[in-house]
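tool_log.txt
---
The assistant was asked to compare two proteins side by side. It first ran the structure predictor on the initial sequence, then on the second. Raw inputs and outputs are pasted verbatim so the downstream comparison step can read them without reformatting.
(1)
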Amino acid sequence: MAAELHPRSGKLIGLSNSNRTAQRNQPIQEFNHGLVLSREPLRDRDVFTVRIDKKVNSWSGSIEIGVTALDPATLDFPSSATGLKGGSWIVSGYSVLRDGRSILEEYGRDLDQLGEGDLVGIQRDTQGNLHLWVNGEDCGVAATGLPPRLWAVIDLYGKCTQITVVSSEPPPSDQETCEDSEEQAEAAAPVSQEVSALPRSQSRPDKFPNSLGTENGFGEQDLSDFVNSAILSAYSNSVSEPMDVPRCSQGSSPPEGLGASLTVATNLGSVSPVGGVMTNDALLFHEKCGTLIKLSNNNKTAERRRPLDEFNNGVVMTNRPLRDNEMFEIRIDKLVDKWSGSIEIGVTTHNPNNLDYPATMTNLRSGTIMMSGSGILTNGKGTRREYCEFSLDELQEGDHIGLMRKSNGALHFYINGIDQGVAATQTPTIVYGVVDLYGMAVKVTIVHNHNHSDRLRRNNAIMRALSPDVGRSRTALHLSTDSDVPERLLFHSNCGQKAAIINDGKTALRPHATDDFNHGVVLSSRPLRSNEVFQVRIDKMVDKWAGSIEIGVTTHNPAYLQLPSTMTNLRSGTWMMTGNGVMHNGTTILDEYGHNLDRLKAGDTVGVVRKDDGSLHFFVNGVAQGPAAWNVPPNVYAVVDLYGQAAQATIMDDLADLPPLPDDVSEGNNQLSPVSPCSVMSATDLRFHHLHGNNAVITNGGRTALRQNCRSEFNDAIVISNRCLRDGELFEIVIQKMVDRWSGSIEAGVTAIRPEDLEFPNTMTDIDYDTWMLSGTAIMQDGNTMRNNYGCDLDSLTTGSRIGMMRSASGDLHYYINGVDQGVACSGLPPVPGVAHRFHSKHGKNILVQNDGCQAIRAGGFSHGIVFSMKELKSDELFEVKIDQVDDQWSGSLHIGLTTLQPSDIPCTTTGLSASLLELRSKVTWLVTGSEVRRNGILQKQNYGCSLDRLGVGNRVGVKRCSDDTMHILIDGEDMGPAATAVAKNVYAVLDLYGKITSISIVSSTVLEETESTKAPSLSSDSCSEEEEEEPTPCEMESSLAVKTMEFLENHGKNILLSNQNFTATRVSSYNQGLLVTSQPLPRQHLFQVQIDRLNPTWTSSLSLGVIGNCPERFNFPSTACCLKRSTWLVQRDSVFHNSLKICENYGPNLDTCPEGTLLGILVDGNNCLHLYVNGIDQGLAAQDIPNPCFPLVDLYGQCEQVTIITNHVQAVGAEPVDTRCQADMEKADMVDGIKESVCWTPPPEVNPMKTCEYQALCTRFKDLLTLPDGYFNEDAKLNLCYCESCHKLRGDEAYYKRGEPPRDYALPFGWCRFALRINPRSDMANTFKKWHIAYHGCSVGTLRTTLDQGELVSGSLSIFSVAPTKVDVQNEYTETEENSAPEREAVKVKLSPTMRYSGLEAFAPKVQFRDPRSHRCHQAQVAFQVCVHPGSYKVGSQSLGIVEALDPRFSNSEIEWITKEKGGTLLYGLLIRVE
């Protein structure tokens, strides 16, 4: 009878074609309820076969097939086949489930990958075994012990929407002759993932090779993996049942191929023959395990219970000891992101039956070796801190970890199939595998299919330095036995300590090329034949080192060679080309041989050949360089030394199989040689930003983004461009890889949010501000759908499709699919922030400035090409240019740096500027030329970063002054690090188009500055005059106009209704969606007030008030103000919030308690500080650094339903602000944190001891020149503090502190370096430090020793050594340039001050000149003392130097000088030194 489907089926199934065709209804809306069963039970050996007719791409998962003992006539159909219980076996994907629980993983073909037209069948054989058939091929035994009465089950799940029954009959008769042996043999040779890529006629070889020789087409490791996988798949999941050796029913012996394969597998330790019985003695987890462990999947899977509550007690061990050379490998299935630390793995001599399991395996103090993090622990103690490059704590779900005890006793660990080397030697013979599911690790599964080439792919997501194209395994096993085919040239696995071999032996690299420059030697896997060319392509270079790739030949066999750090160190049997010379056994034999290898770029090729006459020849980019050596013996191995700049190279013996050259081929200079056969230049500097979602990985120099764990994670993979897009600029990407596991696909769009300000969500459509995205066919703004059915569907794109985005000058967003414009997606995008930098009109005489000041061209000669930036650079502002043209007739290149010279001060004459930047010395200039850093022409540093002499057309170079007063140079976006320190604040960018550089253009932008037309009106304008009261000034008119137009903006929360000419706002429903802003920005010194008109006691909470720095015209308001996370300051209840983060508590009254009629106002003062007013009373400083312009923000939330702007109370706080003190004069109680400082002074926190400060080191060297006894200084170096700008900012020091009883202010000595002095042990230290005041005393160098001897400041203590200045200029000595005047020597009083701005004046602390013993440069230095002063022992008086201007904003000139005569009233606390 023809096979049919049972009429009873899942609720979404429709049957047709005489019940032979089943279709799932509503396939786009529903993915399950598609179960169908056979009409009759299966007969033994019948294969119930169906054909997949239709599939959709909306869902993950696909067809599932199996058998069930449940009668369909009475079955209550579940939603899917995996829900069948009571004796059901289902094949889903490549897993086998029994009654919904997995019993076998990695079985057969992956059903999810089958397409329309493929055939799938299910069979129960006469032995009660279950078989899966795919396209007529048996996938082997899936399960055993099946009952005799079974119905076939097909689940039209996920993508599969229609099937048709083809047949239900036994397999072809040629397989019936020896049924049992054929079933076992086919089970013993399943198709591996790699073999499946072969044609079907070759996918299952008739027999395995009888040897492991490479002449059979197998690599040694490939064949081991292939056979091991085949044998393990032959057995059922139950390991307790022995299976007979397959026998033919006619009594014939086992097939030859099966016997050979069994032999190999036995040697691998996977199968044990015992008396003619083959037992599947596979590694499993022992039933005795940690207290929180739950075992499943026939003890192949271990999971730690309560992973969010407990982090340990997760130890599991193997069920038997490991055999020699047996791989124990696990896969990480689940991690939680709560704990620190993760999985640990190793071996132990303890028998699990007798072991009292510890909480964590590292607590075991005997017989245990564990890998934890990246180190090795033996018996709980660290024996190797950095064992391998990978850390187990950084692995992700899906990663594999393995270990193996070699027959020589060495223990090796493997990560994703890569051997990490010897972890321990002399490992005991009997050891068990042990896994500790610690911390983040929750679930693991033992893996029996150790396919290393598959695991290698995962390492591209871990080793970020690798190109995404490397790591590809060969698509198929080559089974050819043709001995005439030459063995392919590959790299030998034995390589230098810092080198790695990837890409099936075709690629060598130094993974950490920026950290190490040598130990990168690699050799060919076999000797070169005569006239055989060995050629490699340089894939990657770094510009950090000198030197580059070296190539040659050696007679040494790589298998036995102890590789040197560089090949030129080898003193026998070696010929190498290095630079443009040739060396033999480390000695140069040719000086000027050929093209200099040090000048090659990424993409260039180098080669070597030994001809049959014994001569050695080298090639550069395919061009022969001529004979380099003679009488070279045969059977030499090729050698490549990845030295210096060379970071990665690939063998070029087969161009068709060669990985494509990465677009970003260099970490530094990516200019390609003009003659390179692989030269490709990028026309854009757009890259992916280094900040991205957790599951995203950026490789290929920022050009490639991939989602790691793509089969277990579907989101949290947002990537953003490295800079904002310019108007009309296309940002285009190409889809390189897709998976069919998930619904949905790529989403693309634009955002105005800087990556540094973004807390990356799961998907970009979760962002509720300043973001426009295309998802499928829907255009979304801030997470809300604006438009459906846009011109393209991103979910329908396939591999190779290109997606582009462009913002037009009019603010329209366009999408491009494969280069075709899809039309306007949305309008009203904000303008590009910032305006382009410009060159100054003052420049060298050979310079022409064009293109609106954005391009500079040197019209003639090789010099007189100096150009400046138009304005001073702000802190951390990058000034960047791109090289447009070069003229190779000149030597030299671009010079770039910073200068304090103002271009406007340059005279308008042809001789106003020097010929080159090196000669510019009228002001301080820091510049980089080549790889040297100079200050006013004096060399400061050599070998800095990438040499500018290597720059070419298209390269970008930039300069910036960082907030720590350092100058940084950036080349092609890569920061070369600090070039100079102590750079002045007011500096211009300066460049010199010198030598070969003839044209550059600016590619950077500055922060958008307010033009006069956009600045908020203020009474501080110069046009305002206090004397002109009769007629309003223009400034007053502007201010008055601003007052009258302060009204609510029409763009507001959706529950707001405006009335009373937009002065009154009412929330008409709900309790939220009540956000309001004004239509005009808030002028400085103007009070904006609203009155609470109506409260609704039904709700809780109430109004919030603040300012927002974004233009609200096109703002998409969230439900409440606390959701605003960009440029927002908000007073809510009694707290202050900035970008939804609380920055101040207990500020002012609680706004939730304000009754109706309360006046609430905000004001931003002249110091950019925000104030809250309640009923006209200033509540003090709420926040600082408010931007200009800013807009008042009101949130009618909860109880507050209506407010009105009070226009007649809007008042300007005139020239005299409410708080007349400047910011530096404010008490700590006025600061943002709202916490008053204790009157008991404590020293500021110390600087990070790991940070080295060059200024502190310079001051220390000067102190050493003073030859003061060490006994005067405190032995604790942590008490020595540097107060340079970078150090005190790093510590977060305030400018002023209080100390003593009564408390008195003093200023920190910014700009000085303090060396703590030893305190007299007889003094009451605790009482002194708590109750005395702090002050400073400037002195001359000559008085230091006398003062230190006295232990305090005393009147008339000047030394006779300081009577007259000396002018001797002796190296490593100082010379005093001037001395205190006679009146100072005759004074009988000691002068102090609470600030070094007074005590550090030259009248008190004269400068001395000294020569730095390290740099041999001359400096000027001053010295002073920091002292503790007894309260009441001094008098506060006016400054005595006749200075008019204020010296310190905290201390007036009338109280800046303290005078004491009292002996014992001062205590020396620290020596202060300042060096200029």
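(2)
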Amino acid sequence: MARAWQHPFLNVFRHFRVDEWKRSAKQGDVAVVTDKTLKGAVYRIRGSVSAANYIQLPKSSTQSLGLTGRYLYVLFRPLPSKHFVIHLDVSSKDNQVIRVSFSNLFKEFKSTATWLQFPLVLEARTPQRDLVGLAPSGARWTCLQLDLQDVLLVYLNRCYGHLKSIRLCASLLVRNLYTSDLCFEPAISGAQWAKLPVTPMPREMAFPVPKGESWHDRYIHVRFPSESLKVPSKPIEKSCSPPEAVLLGPGPQPLPCLVASSKPVRFSVSPVVQTPSPTAQCGRAPVAPRPFPEVSLSQERSDASNADGPGFHSLEPWAQVEASDVHTAAAGTHVLTHESAEVPVARTGSCEGFLPDPVLRLKGVIGFGGHGTRQALWTPDGAAVVYPCHAVIVVLLVDTGEQRFFLGHTDKVSALALDGSSSLLASAQARAPSVMRLWDFQTGRCLCLFRSPMHVVCSLSFSDSGALLCGVGKDHHGRTMVVAWGTGQVGLGGEVVVLAKAHTDFDVQAFRVTFFDETRMASCGQGSVRLWRLRGGALRSCPVDLGEHHALQFTDLAFKQARDGCPEPSAAMLLVCSRSGHILEIDCQRMVVRHARRLLPTRTPGGPHPQKQTFSSGPGIAISSLSVSPAMCAVGSEDGFLRLWPLDFSSVLLEAEHEGPVSSVCVSPDGLRVLSATSSGHLGFLDTLSRVYHMLARSHTAPVLALAMEQRRGQLATVSQDRTVRIWDLATLQQLYDFTSSEEAPCAVTFHPTRPTFFCGFSSGAVRSFSLEAAEVLVEHTCHRGAVTSLTATPDGRLLFSSCSQGSLAQYSCADPQWHVLRVAADMVCPDAPASPSALAVSRDGRLLAFVGPSRCTVTVMGSASLDELLRVDIGTLDLASSRLDSAMAVCFGPAALGHLLVSTSSNRVVVLDAVSGRIIWESTVFQLPGVHPEPCPSLTLSEDARFLLIAAGRTIKVWDYATQASPGPQVYIGHSEPVQAVAFSPDQQQVLSAGDAVFLWDVLAATESDQSFPGAPPACKTGLGAGPLEDAASRASELPRQQVPKPSQASPPRLGVCARPPEGGDGARDTRNSGAPRTTYLASCKAFTPARVSCSPHSAKGTCLPPASGGWLRLKAVVGYSGNGRANMVWRPDTGFFAYTCGRLVVVEDLHSGAQQHWSGHSAEISTLALSHSAQVLASASGRSSTTAHCQIRVWDVSGGLCQHLIFPHSTTVLALAFSPDDRLLVTLGDHDGRTLALWGTATYDLVSSTRLPEPVHGVAFNPWDAGELTCVGQGTVTFWLLQLRGADISLQVRREPVPEAVGAGELTSLCYGAPPLLYCGTSSGQVCVWDTRAGRCFLSWEADDGGIGLLLFSGSRLVSGSSTGRLCLWAVGAVSELRCKGSGARSSSVFMEHELVLDGAVVSASFDDSVDMGVVGTTAGTLWFVSWAEGTSTRLISGHRSKKSHQSGRGGSCL
């Protein structure tokens, strides 16, 4: 079974970043090219010798891919009349590496013990004897689906382990490689597969199919082995006969003649082409992901899982028999996983579910501890810290803050241990019976799960080699028990073996295995220090003679190695600490105390912070933990200090004061960092070299009651039973502020939608507002008599509502910072309802308010402004079949366009009501196991696109496919050890937060369907509300970016992110009014093609959030959006694959093949235009003025390195256009209509060569591609031809101005491009295209091309592309125009005709096409980049932006993550 991070499929090229060639290798002729059929970038591998031209993953033969997916999908096309080879190195479970090769070079099947060679025949168009050989001339794109598990079973009788390496050899085109445990059907669309037991190919993997065409007419699907080969579910024993395919014998077998048939070809050893029927099943492969075996879900489910063969492991006998005894969190289900799990999922109901599966992936955790705060470890390399967060084990990289997780426990983790080589991690969970897990630390895979003989495990300790694990805990009678396990065979597929068990009447607080002898251990506790030894299958111990210290309460111990490094036991010393402040040094050989020291509270003379006996009741300072390195001893005490001592304890070397008692310390292996944890939930480390303390994690010390998210700053607020309110940064998961109240407990929290303010309700009934900037209380209102149960604000921030436990409802006006009470209504909200963050809900248009009340059985809907009651629904009467009166628990509104109100009830149901009429649209029962008492649902929420419904149910999070009412059930996610109190989607809908024992941050793996209004509207909703009202409501919804739903794209648009902090110099607030930037007035005919007006305000960051110079708090990861208010601000070179566009102040360079981005920053204002040199080595970008510069900027970038080589300031206004000369020796820049400046720059040094003030506004400039000494400008009524003459180092300009003929019509020339010499095409603001003879300086032809202004013209060969302000993109055949030039003014436009036309979503402002003008990329003012294929007549959305500023971003037209 593949690891969870490889589900449901893995993009191999993207995961290993093939475009960077750091983890992969290329040899010979390997290049990135653009394929017309797939309309994207692919890798071309060609060469006469296949072995010398290839792509290899991974880079080195000593490395391994480690891909465990059963199926490998190779998307490739052989080059015509060429040979190709595909080599796969596959590792079996017994670690035997087998090479599996496919090629059209092979004439017959050959096999050895370590090599399988298969002839790969793609198409059968010749007699059978000619099948093997060169690829046909019309070779098509092929999806090669290899069942690696069956290949090894059928031909070598081995079990498949993992895919080790891949080599793709010439000659072929390859799009990508994917691995998966699912058998996908590439030819089945979403509409077809809904009622069929097949899984469609994910959109990322699918080949594009034009409308009206068949997939099989354009592509080939090869599945190998074929369905006719009967594959057993396990390796065949030697006494059994081999499978049918092996009986063919060693000799060559005749290859079948391939036909278009849905039946597989029998007795074939070669991969064969199959065109399966849409109704064909996938055979043995699962049709939906089932990444984890489950226990006790249902008997049918267990049987189905066991029948799936070796892909799923059977459970241990004790787990099957005693599953009911295991304490569970996920509705009585303990998730047993032999493979690592990033997201433990329990499937419900049918085996089928909605994709992607899983839809959530855990990204980050805010929290530390749970069962205690003593478990925190360094990894042996000192790069990461391992600690528990309730039921989750977290590995935190201290330098980057990145987290990875070990998931599977269903209760709080009570003990952790890591071996000396970072190979094995052991963990135990708290509640009886204690379940333990052994993990592969490097991969995160659970190697073994077993029950401990102890009832509760308190401590674990590994030997340095990892072969021995010792644990201490309590048995059923409360007696102390010590157990030793042998773990040496676990990594090799063996089991954990109990080596010895021992009971003792002595208290054990700490237990360690010695570093010098794996059979020796030590323990300490109340009045006892004992040395242990494992010998002859028994654990024996003897006490250390403590003398006068026999009554001390010992808390921790550590071994100290002798100074000379001698590993002998006689040279080792044991240090033990106690609650009375004593530190005893014990000779392990003589078992006596050699030295006794005591830590006493002293007052440092003149010290700023005198040490006080704060946390200890005795005269000494209680020591809770110690750790030893070869040079020092770290001591953590209950007075809150971490102290570093030399080994002779002569004086304190360094100390750090904490906010609470230190519970655990651990010195890093290099001795340079000291990890410390406190009982108040803080985890950090002290760097001894810099003497700086670094905070790693903070945590609430009690369950979290509610949470709220701030949209613009990316902040999270939480309130907890520990009486604190904390503000967190969602980007770093670090705490920013905390507010503590000792007299009253916070109960509810919400942010103001537009100001840096949050509101908090308290148990005293007070509602206070806090400033995030000043970190202080602004206003307090005490209109409630009971504890505040819920807070919510309208989306525009004008109104705030609060409810209390006495049933009162308060309405506040928040239009100004000094907010005040408008109304207080008594007996409105249910007084005896439990506190819930979803007790109040405001509709997303801010017009409606819903709450549970006045009784638990009713839900009331009011007008938010007037508080007039509009609707009251009796929930108790909805379920007529139940004898128990139902009550409402939580409410939430769906998107405004749907008009849905969702209510969760005490009977474990979710009811969807019409928010206007109150009628039931549909209802569903929240999944629960038989015999399990239903947990109340305190929180639920619906995504903005109405696609996913999120429910907090007990300790689980349940995600429902809201779009499909007939969905078999939710996806259930475990990880919380206590009931989840609140769930919420992030403002960008790409993440989910859940709060209970800790705060979990989950990534939503489903692509956002931004091209549709609401793809998730249930069928009942559509028929119930009616098509007309729904469409009207959707058109008025503020969430929709456009008035009309655009054409759906063939690829999922990128997911949006949220900027965590405002840019430097700004406060994060957005002013949607005029920012005071100077305005420029243009003629009405040119409004469609005005350049971007760049604001001079420091707050006008366009589309990006730039970090401060230090770059300390945020690293830009991805940018989503395109600046549609620029012009010619996108470049694409099909021959090199270079693709760049602007998003605000950034130049985004994107790899169209992998999606990887580079971000070239430096501009202080929005970028208006781009220009790429003809050599594709230099990119120039220009922007307008900012508040810090009086001139605009032009930056010249090195394309290969992404570095800014030159910075010039040519104009005082916005640069309208840039262009390189054909020889790349000159760069021309054109100022806007205010500047009217034309400047020439030498590209050798980028010094100004010439500058000219133009007499009239000019809209475009271009060099003659056939003559580097000529350039042309077009503008108001004239065409200006410039001739460049070199006179030494100087350049003089000769000007020739030609007026626009009256035949062209009134208007201005707005665009231009050169055609075949000596032709010049010009577009006008009235929609005309006119053709000029540059030699004669006259216009001889014109035709009406559009109703709006022509803002873009491109010419290549005999074709012309025009783009207009109406969004029309036209392809013209202009091959006959050159002949018309001889006719002069008598030429007629009848010889020019339109080949194709497309209508896009906005005025066309940028475009790049290939040399044949068959395909290109086009940008519009709507912030969209389209991929256009004239051959297919289609436009595919590549990047979607925003037409105007986004309210939650400090930029225009984009988002940053």
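---
observation on (2): The radius of gyration is 36 Å. The chain has a mean pLDDT of 77.
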